[in-house]
Design a protein that fits this description.
mainly alpha
Length: 347
């Protein structure tokens, strides 16, 4: 009887602990949503022409306020696009880190961003008269080609995490070499390519938002649906196989999903780096490692990071604008070094 009572008390304490964790996670997610809304409001007013918050609010409620044209035509699409792209890159990085069981994995590391960059550079430098719509299409095609090469190289080796990561790094290095060759060979035409490679939301409008929105509305819920599968893969290939999963097929499917998220995002705004790397780490510290909550929180953090980077880029010395990718690199590079140092200590 005493043992039964102790077991009931233990179960009750475990239920209370789980409830507390779930409450904390929901509170963090809600706080991040509020922070994102606040940053979005501030971002609408910041730039070469400063618009007070009250005028921004009036515009959002449909009234004809000061600066309404600037907000509706130029800044609102940048805010929406920053949120979408930041979420897409962060969720892509979260999937890759889980599937590859590598905390340093991201779309940048496995070569997806570099593949898109090489294709975009070829389009900008070698075909400057091409329609502007060809640039995102070529970038997405470049990311897809790198992903296909990645799958072709690792398929026969069982899609092991280490093989995937090392092959991705090698493909990324090859793409990087191609970009450097184009820049050395065509030094006069590199300015536009450099702007794209840095990553920027500048000049993007509602057309770009409508171009990326349907894809992310499809891919992000799909990624969330696989959260439980990623948790299983994190336990190790043997455990996942023991639980009935086809590890090789599942890993390739999830990598393809991560590639699609990153490819769509990079195709629209260029190579904004480090979001896929640092957002999942920040989210993991806040809500733990369960992907059902980790992915949406990482997405919110990625959206906040890109939105903040774009806003800071406009606010530092207006009317000059710094690319968002430059700001994220300034934040992400030291954080990457910190992660490397921490990983070395853990080992």
């Amino acid at each position: 009887m005493n043992n039964l009572h102790k077991q009931m008390m233990s179960d009750k304490q475990a239920d209370v602990a789980r409830l507390n964790i779930a409450t904390r996670q929901r509170f963090i997610a809600a706080a991040l949503v509020m922070l994102l809304l606040l940053f979005g409001l501030v971002s609408l007013g910041v730039g070469a022409v400063y618009i007070p918050v009250d005028q921004v609010m009036l515009t959002l409620f449909g009234q004809d306020a000061e600066g309404a044209f600037i907000i509706e035509k130029y800044r609102a699409p940048r805010v929406v696009l920053s949120v979408l792209v930041g979420a897409g890159l962060a969720i892509s990085g979260t999937i890759l880190q889980g599937v590859l069981r590598n905390p340093l994995a991201s779309p940048d590391v496995i070569g997806i961003t570099k593949g898109a960059g090489l294709a975009a550079s070829i389009t900008i430098i070698l075909f400057p008269a091409t329609s502007i719509i060809a640039l995102p299409l070529s970038a997405f095609a470049g990311a897809t080609v790198v992903a296909l090469l990645l799958f072709a190289f690792v398929y026969r080796r069982g899609a092991r995490p280490t093989t995937l990561a090392l092959t991705g790094i090698a493909l990324g290095a090859m793409c990087d070499a191609g970009i450097q060759y184009l820049m050395v060979k065509h030094p006069v035409d590199v300015n536009a390519a450099l702007i794209w490679l840095t990553g920027s939301v500048w000049g993007r409008g509602w057309d770009e938002v409508l171009g990326v929105l349907p894809w992310l509305l499809l891919l992000i819920p799909l990624a969330l649906a696989f959260a439980g599968k990623i948790d299983v893969l994190v336990l190790g290939d043997d455990v996942a196989a023991g639980l009935g999963e086809n590890v090789k097929r599942l890993r390739l499917l999830l990598v393809a999903l991560a590639v699609a998220l990153a490819g769509v995002s990079v195709a629209v705004v260029g190579a904004i780096g480090f979001i896929g790397l640092i957002a999942p780490h920040m989210a993991r510290r806040l809500v733990g490692a369960k992907h059902g909550i980790l992915m949406p929180v990482a997405g919110l953090i990625g959206a906040i990071l890109v939105l903040t980077a774009d806003t800071l880029g406009r606010a530092i010395i207006p009317p000059v604008e710094f690319p968002a990718g430059l700001i994220t690199a300034a934040i992400g590079a030291p954080y990457f070094l910190y992660l490397l140092r921490r990983e070395r200590k853990v080992r």
